[in-house]
Specification:
With 525 residues, the chain is mostly helical. Helix content is 76%, strand content 0%.
Length: 525
């Protein structure tokens, strides 16, 4: 902990870092509501649109570990300012992209800058706050990350109602400028006082290994073909390079990747619980947004506002997590939260084309209450075994696991939905021209576009009705899969997370005034 940081300054730093995390995490979801105007403006194919999403995710995951290592070695404040500046500049360039290729490029650069921020902000909090205050600081940090998932679609919908699609990226610029100014003024510099020799091989291996792994996951989910040469090659290569990285780092005297952390139950169980729930969370958000817009016919803004109950629930519970953990322990809180998430997925699996809005709100609120019970206590548990001087690298490991799990969530849950939908639609799309049938059977969005471009007359309503039924069938299966994954997180928490919260070290007792004046411990004897 930095002794020069006053209590008021710590609170200001916490607010600044929480908002910084919110801006970056929000960018994972805000683009979803702008896909249609981007497609029309830049003449992009569906595959192009998918890569505008995935390019950010791949570079974000690939550079997480590098950001944490650089922060601990070269300075957390310097690394955070650099990452935020890269993110802001590439956001402006992405807003004015003249082609889909340019947008994909700048989204990739945005991911590199953004990768630094969740990892380094938490490392700074670990340095700034004393042990007794860290659980509350981590809870506030986790609240910002949770709320960001709900704020992104809402803000995106509002901006698109008034401005062009580039506004969803341009909005980052003023926020980043203000953040950089406040960061330079408020945040103290910190780093590992005894850093190991820089490990370029470990850094390069981590970037290539995680990048390949996430690329394979993304392409497998996109094409629903996990045995293609590109997908299988990337997955196998990524796994082998991860294994090589672990072997090399485990043999180093002072490695960038502390493999010993993975053998600690508190660290691995906390990371595992978050990863499993993140898998379910990202997959469920992906499915739900299509349900709101394609099945229920909601506008992007209304679909975005329906995510707000999740953010509210997450915020309310996250703020109370430190007290809940002190009373019931991290094991009970995280296990309960993941079980509550599973309940929300089971409820969502029964949604129909006529589900009332109030029930959608209730399901999202339950979803948020569950997620809010997971991030803060699981993060506090895993970070309690990481030395503050290595907080960046330690958090980077957990964040990387989480991002890979999120990529898997979208890819696997999307693949399951695609299999169910295509099998149900094979016969129904025969009313379309032969050239349009294969693509139209792939997703409900493709079916709707095919119906709009083909002249089906009286046959259109029957095909649309079948598309909705098929999507709901796929949604039922995938939501139950998400519920199963959330229950697996419950089992992991009950088995390996600690029953009681770690006790923070007691501050040293003040010396008697007379003893200090004498300068020796035994002066009064």
């Amino acid at each position: 902990m930095n002794p020069e940081v006053s209590s008021g300054r710590r609170r200001a730093i916490l607010a600044l870092l929480a908002i910084t995390v919110l801006i970056v995490v929000m960018d994972l979801t805000i683009i979803n509501v702008a896909l249609n105007p981007i497609q029309q403006s830049l003449d992009a194919s569906n595959a192009d649109l998918q890569w505008s999403l995935d390019s950010y995710l791949i570079t974000f995951a690939a550079f997480l570990f590098t950001g944490g290592v650089c922060a601990d070695r070269f300075g957390r404040k310097k690394t955070l300012i650099t990452g935020l500046a890269v993110f802001g500049a590439s956001s402006v360039l992405g807003a004015y992209a003249g082609s889909i290729g340019q947008l994909i490029l700048w989204r990739s650069v945005m991911g590199v800058g953004a990768a630094v921020i969740p990892t380094v902000t938490l490392a700074i909090l670990m340095n700034v706050f004393p042990p007794m205050e860290r659980p509350k600081a981590i809870a506030a940090w986790a609240s910002a990350a949770g709320v960001a998932f709900a704020v992104g679609p809402v803000l995106g919908g509002v901006l698109l109602d008034h401005f062009w699609w580039g506004s969803i990226f341009l909005i980052n610029a003023p926020l980043v400028v203000v953040g950089l100014i406040l960061m330079a003024w408020l945040v103290p510099e910190s780093k590992n006082p005894a850093p190991a020799k820089f490990d370029p091989l470990g850094v390069v291996l981590s970037i290539v290994a995680v990048g390949l792994l996430v690329y394979g996951i993304v392409t497998g989910g996109e094409d629903n073909d996990w045995l293609s040469g590109d997908t299988l090659g990337a997955l196998v290569g990524g796994v082998l390079l991860v294994a090589l990285l672990v072997v090399i780092e485990s043999r180093m005297a002072a490695p960038s990747l502390d493999v010993g952390l993975l053998r600690n139950a508190r660290f691995s169980a906390g990371s595992g619980a978050i990863a499993l729930c993140f898998f379910a969370l990202i997959g469920a958000i992906f499915i739900t947004q299509f349900y709101y817009q394609a099945v229920l016919g909601f506008s992007p803004m209304k679909a975005g506002f329906l995510m707000l109950p999740m953010g509210i629930g997450s915020l309310v519970v996250s703020a109370r997590c430190p007290k809940l953990v002190m009373r019931f322990g991290p094991r009970a809180v995280v296990a309960t939260g993941s079980a509550v998430m599973a309940v929300s997925f089971v409820i969502s699996s029964q949604f129909t084309a006529d589900t009332p809005t109030w029930l959608l709100v209730v399901a999202q609120l339950i979803f948020g209450l569950g997620w809010g019970s997971i991030m803060a206590p699981a993060t506090a548990s895993l970070m309690s075994v990481v030395p503050p001087v290595k907080a960046g690298a330690g958090q980077a490991v957990s964040q990387t696991i989480r991002q890979v799990a999120g990529a898997l969530g979208v890819a696997i849950i999307g693949s399951i939905l695609g299999v169910v939908y295509r099998s149900d639609m094979q016969d129904a799309v025969k009313v379309l021209p032969p050239s349009a049938r294969h693509e139209a059977a792939g997703s409900i969005g493709d079916t709707l576009r095919a119906v709009n471009s083909a002249r089906l007359g009286d046959r259109a309503p029957a095909l649309l009705h079948k598309a909705v039924d098929s999507y709901l069938s796929g949604m039922e299966v995938t939501m139950l899969v998400a519920a199963g994954v959330a229950l697996l997180a419950t089992a992991v928490s009950l088995r390996w997370l600690p029953k009681t919260a770690p006790r923070p070290p007691m501050p040293p007792a003040p010396k008697p005034a007379a003893e200090e004046a004498a300068g020796t411990p035994g002066a009064l004897a």
